[in-house]
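Marked as duplicate of an earlier ticket. Keeping the data here for the record.
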Amino acid sequence: MNSDSDSDTVAVDTSFLEKVTLCNRQYQRYAVERSVYFEPIDEYEAERLRRQHEVLKVVFDNKLIFPPINNPKKILDCGYGSAQWALEVAEAYPGCKVIGVDISPHMRPDTVPENLWLQMDDLNHTFTFPRDSFDLVHSRLVAGGIDRQRWPSYVRDIVRVLKPGGWVQFVEIYWNCQSDNGLLTDDHALRQWSNKYMNSPLSHKKDLRTHLTLEPNMRAAGLINIQHTKIQLPLTGWSPGKMFQSLLQVSRLFDEPVLAKHTPASSWWEKQQKPGNQKQFQIGELNRENTSRLLDSMVLWPFLEMLKMNREDLVVLIAHARAEAAHPGLKAYFPLYVYIGQKAGA
């Protein structure tokens, strides 16, 4: 991992660029052979990640940065994927140096702002960025790429490269599909999809329940002012219930007393009470296509290559899971977790 974005250009190791194909989807050979990452890196997946980013923007009221950082000078994005978050942050803060790191260069955009540098490396390796470098470190949906035993040192690395007073924000999804009305059972394909994924050999290598250990790891690494919230991320548009209350937690995350001296009170709650507000339904509708695609892309390699599942059986399972995910009566969702924490010494 380059120590700075201004370092001399280094030739790309061609092993990072090689691909392997499974079911007409392209994967990074380097990543799958080293058990780093098992999801596609083709343009179809890049488009899905861009859709997913748009969904999360609506969930977070178009907020890219959650902690009270007014004028960041240097930001690190861990696991940038399609680089949509990093690109938009770089555009929003033209005076800020934004560095993205990902093991795969395949989904990066062709053009980026001048203040955005995208680097290749494995986040399972120790960071070589200098201590006290970044105002913010962003880590979103990297549980599928971080080794289980790496998480404590991964969080410590983040804290080490943060400036005193700097912040980290984590966003992770727990892929155990749940139902707001309790109608989803073990007989449903969605629950079978989740159970197979959560209990596949992948779970021996990756921590698929990161939400249970993130806060202890953050505290052990010395972070302070830790806050977190859980949000229901609907798989399709369904009428609000508990999801409305979980979205309220987003506003509370921004309005905690520790943040009050830095940021004005959010009008989020007032906006939600306006007649005819359809934000909850909108999130689900936006997420419908992303859900349909991820039910395929997330499990092809783990199910076919690890579980040795019959391909025809997998096709049937995914088809049924997609139909159930799109059924508003099941009120299916994935739990979404957000954590922020600050490095002491400001």
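See parent ticket for discussion. Residues 182 and 322 are 18 Å apart (CA to CA).
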